[in-house]
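hey can u check if this looks right to u? its 263 residues, i copy pasted from the old doc so theres a chance i mangled smth
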Amino acid sequence: MKNAISAATGQVLALSMLPGIGPATLRKIASLSNFERTTPNQWAAQVPALERALNASGTWSKALEQAEEQVEWARRVDARILSPLDEAYPPLLAATKDDPFLIFVRGSLAPAPFKSVAIIGTREPTAHGQAIAQRIAQYFAERSWSIVSGLAIGCDAIAHSTALQAQGHTIAVLAHGLHTIAPKQHRRLADDILAAGGALLCEFPFGREPIPQQFVKRDSTQAGLVQGVVMIQSDVRGGSLHASRAALTYARWLAVPYPTTKT
């Protein structure tokens, strides 16, 4: 199997386990000169937040243990842990202002990452909405675009399934760790995505269960991975709106099929 993690990203992973160290601080530390050849105490001299975290009793040794647990879990399921320090990190995601600094990946990312589109929408599409989702997903899949969605019931599942039927590539972005699949009824769909050469991707560590606020971040990550977003149908409070807003924030294109009265 491929190496689960690079040495540099291993350092980042351990740092992420420290209290109070989030993506912005990780990005700052990783940008320091000679990051890969220096030590946490040397980084802390330039990053006060890290100094405070390291001064907490026993936190660094505990962080190293927790990071190794994540790496071992990744090895067991043949997953990779990536950061922007790795060449394999998706370039479109790296170009966003708030990319997750760590992602966890099972399977194969898009062979042509700049030909990626998110197809998203409500969990309860009308029959007409289902037909539109199928047609659009098929159109892109047949032209070798990777179809990105969130493995949710409704439009997401239609997008993934249609991509598979067209023998295309698809990525499911999850709102939880790779140790589980939510919703449970899509475990078979997730397996099919991996079997067909696609990927499951998340920014949450192994063991993290799905909670509401993580779905909002998941939606933003979907938009970050792609050139553009197609939002099939949504109500006024639908989760798909998070990805749609993120697409505009990231200067990616957003397409919304013209609404009709058909059911």
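The beta strands are 79-82, 103-107, 116-120, 146-149, 170-173, 199-202, 228-231, 253-255.
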